[in-house]
């Protein structure tokens, strides 16, 4: 069952406007569906997938389209995910005619390239709606999530994307979210060099902007979200719905990030990629923050390498970081 987090602000207070949303709904939020395609990648999580799908289909405002992308490398796991999705698609409709009349169109596709980035890209390639939302298969939406977020963006047409406050659940228990990791609003590129501050599961973004950015980089098996948000935030601000409307869950199920020894090296790679592709967009101050973030991550990597008696393995990356930033600062301050 979906936890009762809808309407709560991060500080624990209750938003009265959200509590009375059904009674005071605006005309734009009374629509049966929002013009949104929701993409859910999944790899060997049939039970969690079922819960994620139901959190979307059971929302007070439904998306027009739901696309589940099967991404498990193992054929048995893929078929289990497929069966779970099909059961969810069929539930709630007693016959084929009722299913055909449902305003929510459900699609099931396969992606042979393993990893959440390629899977999300595959879903977006098939999406028919002008807005995109993502939901990881182990996360959930609160019932009012899409309605509140859609209304928020309708009232702020200058924004190209918005995310929501979230709650973290591990092994069924709520975690305290560190202040520096809570969602931000605006164009918080400097802070994003250090931390991943946008959750895929909370995002609602214009599809044309996602395509303009080129989607998730398939070279990043993990940290693909961190890398994409850098490319987004160097160009655009993002809005924030401050109510807790996204439920992030962790448990003993397999997670892609756990297969990698360190995420810091990949995040450094993401920052270096930004330098190579978008250095002209960065201010001197932003370059300085990026360099500081890389130096902090390199210290962590070096300490870990020394503990494993492999201190030299980080040296090539240190040299690469120094060279890239030297070049970037030279371009930003010609003549110095």
Keywords:
alpha/beta; Spore Coat Polysaccharide Biosynthesis Protein SpsA, Chain A; 2 domains; nine-stranded mixed β-sheet; 12 helices; 41% helix; globular
Protein described:
By secondary structure, this protein is α/β, with parallel strands linked by helices. It has 2 domains: 16-254, Spore Coat Polysaccharide Biosynthesis Protein SpsA, Chain A, CATH 3.90.550; 264-332. It is built from 12 helices and 9 strands. It has helices at residues 16-19, 46-57, 75-90, 96-101, 116-126, 145-154, 189-192, 207-213, 224-233, 264-278, 284-307, 315-332, and strands at residues 33-42, 62-70, 105-110, 131-134, 140-141, 161-170, 173-175, 204-206, 239-250. Strands 1, 2, 3, 4, 5, 6, 7, 8 and 9 form a 9-stranded mixed sheet that branches. The longest helix is centred in the last third of the chain and has 24 residues, at 284-307. It is globular, with a radius of gyration of 21 Å. It starts with 15 loop residues before the first helix and ends with a helix.
């Amino acid at each position: 069952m979906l936890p009762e987090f809808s309407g709560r602000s991060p500080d624990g207070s209750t938003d009265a406007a959200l509590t009375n949303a059904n009674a005071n709904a605006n005309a734009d939020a009374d629509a049966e569906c929002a013009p949104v395609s929701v993409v859910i990648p999944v790899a060997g999580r049939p039970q969690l997938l079922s819960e994620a799908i139901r959190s979307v289909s059971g929302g007070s405002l439904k998306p027009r389209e739901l696309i589940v992308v099967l991404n498990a490398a193992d054929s048995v796991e893929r078929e289990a995910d497929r069966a779970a999705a099909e059961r969810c698609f069929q539930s709630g409709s007693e016959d084929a005619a009722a299913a055909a009349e449902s305003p929510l169109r459900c699609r099931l596709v396969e992606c042979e390239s393993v990893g959440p980035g390629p899977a999300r890209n595959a879903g977006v390639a098939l999406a028919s709606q002008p807005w995109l939302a993502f939901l990881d298969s182990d996360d959930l939406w609160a019932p009012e999530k899409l309605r509140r977020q859609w209304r928020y963006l309708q009232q702020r047409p200058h924004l190209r994307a918005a995310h929501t406050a979230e709650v973290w659940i591990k092994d069924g228990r709520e975690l305290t979210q560190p202040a520096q990791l809570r969602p931000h609003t605006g164009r918080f590129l400097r802070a994003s060099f250090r931390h991943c501050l946008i959750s895929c599961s909370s995002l609602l973004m214009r599809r044309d902007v996602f395509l303009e950015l080129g989607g998730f980089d398939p070279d990043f098996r993990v940290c693909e979200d961190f890398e994409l948000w850098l490319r987004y935030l160097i160009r655009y601000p993002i809005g924030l719905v401050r109510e807790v409307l996204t439920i992030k869950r962790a448990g003993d199920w397999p997670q892609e990030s756990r297969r990698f020894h360190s995420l810091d090296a990949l995040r450094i790679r993401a920052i270096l990629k930004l330098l190579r592709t978008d250095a002209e967009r960065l201010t001197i101050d932003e370059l300085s923050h990026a360099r500081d973030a890389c130096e902090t991550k390199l210290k962590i990597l070096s300490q870990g390498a020394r503990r494993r008696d492999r201190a030299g393995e980080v040296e090539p990356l240190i040299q690469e970081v120094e060279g890239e930033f030297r070049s970037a600062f030279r371009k930003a301050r010609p003549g110095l």
